[in-house]
Design brief:
about 220 residues; 5 helices; elongated; Golgin_A_7/ERF4; Ras_palmitoyltransferase
Length: about 220
Protein backbone atom coordinates (compact mmCIF):
# COMPACT_ATOMS: atom_id res chain seq x y z
CA UNK A 1 0.00 0.00 0.00
CA UNK A 2 2.81 2.41 0.90
CA UNK A 3 4.64 1.79 -2.37
CA UNK A 4 1.43 2.34 -4.34
CA UNK A 5 0.87 5.64 -2.58
CA UNK A 6 4.45 6.85 -3.07
CA UNK A 7 4.42 6.00 -6.78
CA UNK A 8 1.39 8.27 -7.28
CA UNK A 9 3.07 11.32 -5.75
CA UNK A 10 4.05 13.88 -8.39
CA UNK A 11 6.50 16.74 -8.01
CA UNK A 12 4.93 20.19 -8.24
CA UNK A 13 5.82 23.76 -7.36
CA UNK A 14 4.68 23.89 -3.75
CA UNK A 15 4.88 27.70 -3.72
CA UNK A 16 1.73 27.92 -5.87
CA UNK A 17 -1.65 28.39 -4.23
CA UNK A 18 -5.20 29.28 -5.20
CA UNK A 19 -6.71 32.74 -4.81
CA UNK A 20 -10.33 31.74 -4.32
CA UNK A 21 -11.90 35.09 -3.43
CA UNK A 22 -11.88 38.56 -4.94
CA UNK A 23 -10.36 39.98 -1.76
CA UNK A 24 -7.48 37.47 -1.84
CA UNK A 25 -6.82 38.46 -5.46
CA UNK A 26 -6.82 42.17 -4.63
CA UNK A 27 -4.46 41.55 -1.70
CA UNK A 28 -1.98 39.48 -3.73
CA UNK A 29 -2.34 40.87 -7.27
CA UNK A 30 -3.58 44.40 -6.69
CA UNK A 31 -6.76 43.66 -8.70
CA UNK A 32 -9.49 41.03 -8.89
CA UNK A 33 -10.91 39.06 -11.82
CA UNK A 34 -14.40 40.19 -10.81
CA UNK A 35 -16.12 42.49 -8.33
CA UNK A 36 -16.87 39.53 -6.05
CA UNK A 37 -17.34 35.76 -6.18
CA UNK A 38 -20.93 36.15 -7.50
CA UNK A 39 -19.76 38.21 -10.47
CA UNK A 40 -20.15 36.21 -13.70
CA UNK A 41 -16.69 37.36 -14.83
CA UNK A 42 -14.99 36.13 -11.64
CA UNK A 43 -12.67 33.14 -11.81
CA UNK A 44 -10.26 31.63 -9.33
CA UNK A 45 -6.54 32.08 -9.92
CA UNK A 46 -3.61 29.77 -9.26
CA UNK A 47 -0.94 32.20 -8.09
CA UNK A 48 2.40 31.46 -9.78
CA UNK A 49 4.17 34.81 -9.18
CA UNK A 50 4.49 36.63 -5.92
CA UNK A 51 5.15 39.95 -4.21
CA UNK A 52 8.79 41.00 -4.38
CA UNK A 53 10.21 40.82 -0.83
CA UNK A 54 13.63 41.90 -2.08
CA UNK A 55 12.54 45.52 -2.57
CA UNK A 56 11.71 48.05 0.15
CA UNK A 57 7.94 48.35 0.39
CA UNK A 58 6.50 51.72 -0.76
CA UNK A 59 5.95 53.89 2.30
CA UNK A 60 7.56 51.27 4.50
CA UNK A 61 4.18 49.58 5.12
CA UNK A 62 5.34 46.08 4.16
CA UNK A 63 2.96 45.89 1.16
CA UNK A 64 4.61 45.21 -2.19
CA UNK A 65 1.46 44.09 -4.02
CA UNK A 66 1.62 47.13 -6.34
CA UNK A 67 5.38 46.99 -6.99
CA UNK A 68 6.42 46.99 -10.68
CA UNK A 69 8.19 43.64 -10.31
CA UNK A 70 7.12 40.17 -9.20
CA UNK A 71 8.97 37.04 -8.11
CA UNK A 72 8.98 33.60 -9.71
CA UNK A 73 9.99 30.97 -7.15
CA UNK A 74 11.90 27.90 -8.30
CA UNK A 75 11.30 25.28 -5.59
CA UNK A 76 13.79 23.08 -3.78
CA UNK A 77 13.90 19.45 -4.86
CA UNK A 78 15.01 16.57 -2.67
CA UNK A 79 15.08 13.58 -5.03
CA UNK A 80 18.79 13.76 -5.86
CA UNK A 81 20.44 14.11 -2.46
CA UNK A 82 17.65 14.30 0.10
CA UNK A 83 18.61 17.35 2.19
CA UNK A 84 22.41 17.06 2.31
CA UNK A 85 22.76 20.36 0.45
CA UNK A 86 20.31 22.67 -1.35
CA UNK A 87 19.31 21.88 -4.93
CA UNK A 88 16.59 23.52 -6.99
CA UNK A 89 14.15 22.08 -9.50
CA UNK A 90 15.27 22.08 -13.13
CA UNK A 91 11.67 21.76 -14.34
CA UNK A 92 10.47 24.86 -16.11
CA UNK A 93 7.68 26.42 -13.99
CA UNK A 94 4.38 24.99 -15.17
CA UNK A 95 5.91 21.80 -16.66
CA UNK A 96 6.40 19.85 -13.42
CA UNK A 97 4.75 16.40 -13.38
CA UNK A 98 2.18 17.69 -10.88
CA UNK A 99 1.58 21.05 -12.57
CA UNK A 100 -2.03 21.96 -13.33
CA UNK A 101 -3.35 22.57 -16.82
CA UNK A 102 -6.75 24.11 -17.64
CA UNK A 103 -8.01 20.62 -18.55
CA UNK A 104 -7.08 18.85 -15.30
CA UNK A 105 -7.12 21.89 -13.02
CA UNK A 106 -10.74 22.91 -13.48
CA UNK A 107 -9.63 25.95 -15.45
CA UNK A 108 -6.63 26.63 -13.22
CA UNK A 109 -3.16 26.57 -14.76
CA UNK A 110 0.41 26.48 -13.48
CA UNK A 111 1.60 28.39 -16.56
CA UNK A 112 4.27 30.90 -15.57
CA UNK A 113 4.88 34.41 -16.93
CA UNK A 114 8.60 33.61 -16.79
CA UNK A 115 8.11 32.22 -20.30
CA UNK A 116 7.70 35.80 -21.52
CA UNK A 117 11.37 36.43 -20.71
CA UNK A 118 13.41 33.20 -20.45
CA UNK A 119 13.41 30.05 -22.55
CA UNK A 120 13.57 26.60 -21.01
CA UNK A 121 17.22 26.20 -22.01
CA UNK A 122 18.15 29.59 -20.51
CA UNK A 123 16.49 28.78 -17.19
CA UNK A 124 18.02 25.29 -17.14
CA UNK A 125 21.48 26.80 -17.57
CA UNK A 126 20.90 29.27 -14.71
CA UNK A 127 19.52 26.66 -12.29
CA UNK A 128 22.19 24.10 -13.20
CA UNK A 129 24.94 26.65 -12.54
CA UNK A 130 23.49 27.46 -9.12
CA UNK A 131 23.01 23.77 -8.27
CA UNK A 132 26.55 22.85 -9.29
CA UNK A 133 28.08 25.62 -7.20
CA UNK A 134 25.90 24.81 -4.19
CA UNK A 135 26.92 21.17 -4.36
CA UNK A 136 30.60 22.12 -4.58
CA UNK A 137 30.29 24.48 -1.61
CA UNK A 138 27.97 22.63 0.74
CA UNK A 139 28.31 18.91 0.09
CA UNK A 140 29.62 17.38 3.34
CA UNK A 141 31.38 14.71 1.28
CA UNK A 142 33.49 17.09 -0.80
CA UNK A 143 37.11 16.34 0.07
CA UNK A 144 37.95 19.98 0.76
CA UNK A 145 35.07 20.27 3.21
CA UNK A 146 36.26 17.10 4.92
CA UNK A 147 39.81 18.47 5.18
CA UNK A 148 38.52 21.80 6.53
CA UNK A 149 36.45 20.08 9.19
CA UNK A 150 39.38 17.91 10.28
CA UNK A 151 41.78 20.87 10.45
CA UNK A 152 39.26 22.95 12.39
CA UNK A 153 38.78 20.12 14.84
CA UNK A 154 42.53 19.84 15.40
CA UNK A 155 42.95 23.62 15.69
CA UNK A 156 39.83 24.19 17.82
CA UNK A 157 38.40 26.27 14.97
CA UNK A 158 41.19 28.84 15.24
CA UNK A 159 42.13 28.24 11.61
CA UNK A 160 39.12 30.31 10.50
CA UNK A 161 40.71 33.33 12.15
CA UNK A 162 43.51 33.36 9.59
CA UNK A 163 41.72 32.17 6.45
CA UNK A 164 38.19 31.71 5.20
CA UNK A 165 36.99 28.12 5.09
CA UNK A 166 36.32 26.39 1.80
CA UNK A 167 32.54 26.85 2.16
CA UNK A 168 32.78 30.64 2.37
CA UNK A 169 35.14 30.84 -0.60
CA UNK A 170 32.86 28.75 -2.79
CA UNK A 171 29.74 30.67 -1.73
CA UNK A 172 31.48 33.91 -2.73
CA UNK A 173 32.04 32.31 -6.14
CA UNK A 174 28.30 31.58 -6.28
CA UNK A 175 27.55 35.24 -5.55
CA UNK A 176 29.94 36.24 -8.34
CA UNK A 177 28.29 33.79 -10.75
CA UNK A 178 24.83 35.21 -9.96
CA UNK A 179 26.11 38.76 -10.50
CA UNK A 180 27.67 37.75 -13.83
CA UNK A 181 24.42 36.08 -14.91
CA UNK A 182 22.45 39.23 -14.11
CA UNK A 183 24.96 41.38 -16.00
CA UNK A 184 24.64 39.09 -19.04
CA UNK A 185 20.83 39.17 -18.91
CA UNK A 186 20.89 42.97 -18.68
CA UNK A 187 23.27 43.18 -21.65
CA UNK A 188 20.86 41.00 -23.64
CA UNK A 189 18.01 43.37 -22.80
CA UNK A 190 16.15 40.84 -20.65
CA UNK A 191 14.33 42.51 -17.70
CA UNK A 192 15.08 39.57 -15.41
CA UNK A 193 17.17 39.38 -12.25
CA UNK A 194 18.30 36.26 -10.39
CA UNK A 195 18.25 36.63 -6.62
CA UNK A 196 21.07 34.86 -4.79
CA UNK A 197 19.69 31.84 -2.90
CA UNK A 198 21.67 33.04 0.12
CA UNK A 199 19.08 35.83 0.44
CA UNK A 200 16.20 33.34 0.59
CA UNK A 201 17.85 30.94 3.02
CA UNK A 202 17.95 28.36 0.19
CA UNK A 203 14.16 27.95 0.45
CA UNK A 204 13.69 28.91 -3.19
CA UNK A 205 15.60 30.32 -6.13
CA UNK A 206 13.87 33.64 -6.75
CA UNK A 207 13.77 35.27 -10.18
CA UNK A 208 12.58 38.85 -10.47
CA UNK A 209 10.48 39.74 -13.52
CA UNK A 210 8.38 42.76 -14.54
CA UNK A 211 4.77 42.64 -13.34
CA UNK A 212 3.06 40.45 -15.97
CA UNK A 213 -0.01 41.59 -17.89
CA UNK A 214 -3.32 40.49 -16.32
CA UNK A 215 -3.87 37.64 -18.75
CA UNK A 216 -5.87 34.69 -17.46
CA UNK A 217 -3.02 32.23 -17.92
CA UNK A 218 -0.58 34.42 -15.96
CA UNK A 219 -2.74 36.04 -13.25
Amino acid sequence: MASTHSSSVKFYNYHEYILATAQEQRDQLGYATGLDEDDDSFYQVLLTHFENPHLPAPGGNGDNSSAPTRIIRIPREFSTNNDLYPQFSTFYPGTEPGALTPADGGGLTSASPLRLYLSESELHEIVSTVNTRLEAALSPYHWQNVVDHCLNLVCCWLLELVRDPYVKRRLRELETAVAETNARLAAEGKPVRVISPLRTGYLSLDIEIPRPPPLKEYT
